Amino acid sequence: MVPESALPYHFGDPMPDVPHRTRVLERA
Q1: Both ends of the chain: CA-CA distance in Å?
Q2: For position 11, what pLDDT does the model report?
Q3: pLDDT by residue (tens digit) across 3-26?
């Protein structure tokens, strides 16, 4: 199982703790 930080962002993920995920949230 790969760490969550290695997975792409999925809407509905309860923990957007990765900078890339934060960027996606800001753009959304």
Answers
A1: 28
A2: 60
A3: 555 566 566 666 556 655 555 555
The residue that leads in pLDDT, 28 or 13, is: 13
List all residues 6 or more positions away from 16 whose beta carbon is below 8 Å from its beta carbon: 9, 22, 24, 25
Alpha helices in the chain (DSSP H): 19-27
**Contact yes or no for 12/21 (Cβ under 8 A):** no
Report angle CA 23, 25, 27 to the nearest 5 degrees.
70
Polymer length in residues for the chain: 28
The first and second tokens of residue 18, run together, are 């990765």
